[in-house]
Design brief:
It is built from eight helices and no strands. With 217 residues, the protein is an all-alpha fold. Pfam families: PAP2 (PF01569).
Length: 217
């Protein structure tokens, strides 16, 4: 596809930023204290009850059982409709999210924030699994919606909803006190970098399979 190198360059730059941030998290976490503290104070405020209830409910959408359920349903639907490259793209990024969360959390081993947690979470903090799922899995769905929905009104509505979720799910993790802002920033950089690098390969496969009749047009 055209501009393949541009996608790869942008994706590589995002991944480089993630690596730099991860290096800082692992070896010089004190350099992130001012940034994390400033954003935490701005986001959490005085923890109003209504906002706490909203974010505590919203964050459940990023729980792995929930994501696995709807991605499985969506993948089966795409396969039924013979959109095989789209199904592979969506399901593959769900699997990649799970693998990366396990691998990277054990590499960086960052403790969770010491401030009050408004939901129960265990394990390491960096990167945020919820934020990575929001960026990589919901980001994949955003691409599919943009390509596959012919109705302009419905497409724009779904795009707006997905973008809001991609932003609010990571924000909920900071508000609830279970992740540092740099955790979710790292996850969003990683997911954006991966999507930019994957996109030309996905588009190429989608074009070939449609052109040869291996999947629906």
């Amino acid at each position: 596809m055209q501009n393949k190198q541009l996608y790869w360059s942008k994706g590589s730059f995002c991944l480089l930023l993630f690596v730099i941030l991860g290096y800082t998290v692992r070896f010089y976490p004190q350099h992130l204290e001012a940034f994390d503290g400033m954003v935490q104070t701005a986001v959490r405020g005085d923890l109003p009850a209504g906002l706490t209830s909203f974010f505590a409910t919203l964050t459940k959408l990023g729980n792995m059982p929930v994501i696995i359920t709807w991605v499985t349903v969506m993948t089966l639907f795409l396969v039924w409709k013979r959109y095989y490259s789209e199904a592979l793209f969506l399901a593959g990024n769900l699997i990649l999210t799970g693998l990366l969360v396990v691998l990277l959390k054990n590499i960086y081993q960052r403790p969770r924030p010491s401030l009050e947690h408004l939901v129960v979470e265990h394990g390491f903090s960096f990167p945020s699994g919820h934020a990575l799922a929001a960026g990589l899995v919901l980001g994949s769905l955003l691409i599919l919606v943009t390509q596959g929905i012919s109705s302009t009104g419905l497409r724009r509505l779904l795009q707006v909803v997905l973008v809001i979720l991609i932003l609010l799910l990571p924000l909920s993790r900071v508000y609830l006190g279970v992740h540092y802002p740099s955790d979710v920033l790292g996850s969003l950089l990683l997911s954006l970098g991966l999507l930019l690098i994957e996109y030309p390969a996905y588009q190429g496969l989608r074009f070939r399979w449609r052109f040869t009749g291996k999947q629906a047009r």
